[in-house]
Amino acid sequence: MRITPGRLVPPTLGDPSAYAELRCEVREFLAEKRAAGAYTPTVDCWLSAWDEDFTWDLASRGWLGMTVPVEYGGHDRGYMERFVVTEELLAGGAPVAAHWIADRQIVPSLLKFGTEEQKREYLPGIARGEIFFGIGMSEPESGSDLASVRTVATRIDGGWLLNGSKVWTSGAHKAHAFIALVRTEPVDPDNRHAGLSQLLVDLDSPGVEIRPIVSMSGSHHFNEVFFSDVMVPDARVFGTLGDGWRQVTSELSYERSGPERFLSTFPLLAALTAHADVPNLGRLTARITGLHQMSCAVAGALNHGESADLAAAVVKVLGTSTEGDIAEAASLLTGDDVSDLAGAEWSALVSAGVDQRPGFTLRGGTSEILRGVIARGLGLR
Amino acid sequence: MTVIPGVDPDLSAMMHDVFADRPATGDGCADLDAGLWSELQRLGLTRLTGSEAGGGSGAGWREAAELLSAAASTAIRLPLAEHDLLAGSLLEQAGLQNDDRLRTVAVLNETGSARAVPWALTAQRLTVLWPTGDRWSLADVDVDAVYIEPGANLIGEPRDTVRLDLAALAGTEVDPTAVCHYLRTGALARAVQICAAMDRALALTIEHTTARVQFGRALARFQAVQHLIADIAAECALARAATEAAVCSAVRSGLTGDEAAFRVAVARSCAGHAASVVVRNAHQALGAIGTTREYPLHRYTRAAIAWRGEFGSTQQWDQRVAEAAALAGPDGLWELITE
To answer: Exactly one of A139, A255, A260, A328 is catalytic; which is it?
Structure first.
């Protein structure tokens, strides 16, 4: 039998210059901001560079909540336009962490699963850059095996009582809310994906405690979030009770195929072009270019409402290893006797690169889990 | 579904059908299958991208890439790119007469010789380019007038050394960019072929590992094997994305200009490095059987290795990308990537 595996990634079509004007607009904005000293490009800016003034500025230009309908305070623009703007912001190393999760993940989820009341409650604030979100998925005992979550919501009159904890919640200490994946029914050993639900939890609710998890670099992005009898009203049940697993997994291609999966170290790659004879500069630049083309193709498919889970896994596996390789290449060039690579700015970028690198291939689905996803797509399991 | 997006499905089916039931070209010595070549000629596939006025089929880069993919994925070796995309387009650019005699191109040095000329001894006519000072000349000559020493690449495709007496040659002056354009065209053709060969290596790896049982289960059930294959698939997809972007650029601009040059360099860098992972992992997953002449994997893995070294090495294409990146500099790199 002759096996012909289908395409894993949608075809590259069209003219890259189609969004040139929008790209230019964002680039000029970033150049002005840098010239005014409003920000310095950083590595991993979408996780670690939290700047609410910058976020408000983006919102005032209509670059937040771009895909949100006007009636919910958004801008009714296409997913491709949002993609282009986020790519530009990441390539510029801009401080976008404050609104990143809300804009990337919560917006499409709210539009797909949110009630009218929830959409009116949160979307306008997200588009104005005033409401920030975290992610409430991982738990101390549930890392890659997300279906094993133990946080429990118990039925009470008018709502649910939440007990348990979530971990690795980026920005929880500054965010307003998150969507928690919780167990609303006991585990069914024959179907462990059943009985999971999503709840919208305001992080200032009584009974919520947020403790910092300090990263090895000394920086603080991650938190552990504890719930002790936190009351969540029925109106904050997100989507359908018991449908949490499907809801969580249906949005993964947005999270995994985006430009933050290959551009986390772009400011380092850009800086490397100023130095002579950088080993691998060509290979790494070519890979980032290929990944940009691939990620654009996935964005195009998502824009047409096509599913792209497998393609997203491919982008993430390749992209996160390449952005890590860029940090590595920069680190290998850096030494105490290399005078043109000894400045404070360079040193900060390289240190952030090597410190953040291990996270690249962990967050949002480890490379090992994603290789399993690809293998399943190829019919191997 | 077509291999190259945007190709007419009926045309694509016709291309793949021509090769479908034919055996792969003999290993070690790739003689031209004259019967197949006549059949392709009859179908209008040998001069696919030539203008209709000049006797070609008037198709474009996408169709040419589909045909190259169809041949590469059945391991049938033919001078398709050489005859049409390379010799045909050079003659057309120079305003010279073309016909159905089999052609290939040689870029000669000042002394009139060229190494590794594809299919020179097989061809009837040789389109030659040579430098005179800053200028380049082109002529279309009969192979009988040329000294040819046979050679071959890793998979036995003819790669011959040719020598001509330049003094006896009357040429038409061509634009100096014609040589660059020729190399870029050949490089992209090889990228397309590499992608098709790697996709076939992936398919054979899946076929084998899902059928072969060890320790009581199919090899594909082992996570370590799954990860080898997932990495093959990911690298194939990246090489294809980069190659498709270059083909799109070729359709838009005919491979002229800096943007096209960068796209081709990116495609060759991605395809060249993808081949490292694909070849290593496919052979690892196939075990010793995959290293034999009997098992067909080598027709695709060795082809990918052979082709990534033609029209420039992977290192040279990396260097081109690096030079473009250095020229763009820290403030221009992103624009270079997205233009």
So the answer is: A255
> What distance, in Å, lies between the first and last C-alpha atoms of chain B?
29
Dihedral angle over CA of B122, B124, B127, B133, nearest 10: 90
pLDDT tens-place string over residues A15-65: 777 899 999 999 999 999 999 999 999 999 999 999 999 999 999 999 999
Say if residue A295's pLDDT is above 70: yes
Mean pLDDT throughout B81-110?
96
* Angstrom distance (rounded) from CA A101 to CA A322: 23
Mind listing the pLDDT tens digit for each residue in B285-339?
A: 999 999 999 999 999 999 999 999 999 999 999 999 999 999 999 999 999 999 8
CA-nearest of B54, B324, B78 to B64 is: B78
Q: Which residues pair with A209 in a beta bridge?
A: A226
CB contact under 8 A, B221 and A381: yes
β-pairing, A237-238 vs A133-136, is unpaired
- A8: Cβ–Cβ under 8 A, 6 or more apart, which residues? A310, A311, A314, A374, A377, A378, B233, B234, B237
Q: Nearest C-alpha of chain A: how many angstroms from B97?
A: 34
CA distance A347 to chain B (A): 16
Burial class (CB in 10 A: 0-12, 13-18, 19+), B109: exposed
- Which helix (H) or strand (E) segment holds residue A202: the answer is strand A196-202
**DSSP code per residue over B50-102:** S-TTTTS----HHHHHHHHHHHHTTT----HIIIIIIIIHHHHHHT----SS-
Q: How many CB pairs under 8 A join A and B?
A: 176
Radius of gyration of chain B (CA): 20
Q: What is the pLDDT of residue B245?
A: 96
Which residue among B207, B242, B318 sits closest to A289, beta carbon to beta carbon? Answer: B242
- Indicate if A141 belongs to the active site: no
DSSP code per residue over B236-268: HHHHHHHHHHHHHHHHHHTT-SHHHHHHHHHHH
Cβ A297–B1 below 8 Å, yes or no? Answer: no
The pairing of strands A237-238 and A220-233 is unpaired
Assess whether pLDDT exceeds 80 at residue B29. Answer: no
Question: Is B329 close to A282, i.e. CB distance below 8 A?
Answer: no
Exposed, middle or buried, A203 (CB in 10 Å: 0-12/13-18/19+)?
Answer: buried
Can you tell me the distance from the alpha carbon of A267 to that of A365, in angstroms, rounded to the nearest whole number?
A: 24
- pLDDT attached to residue B27: 80
Q: What chain A residue is nearest to B237 in terms of C-alpha separation?
A: A9
CB contact under 8 A, B334 and A92: yes
For A7, counting Cβ atoms within 10 Å of its Cβ (0-12 exposed, 13-18 middle, 19+ buried), the class is middle
CB-closest option in A12, A286, A371 to B230: A371
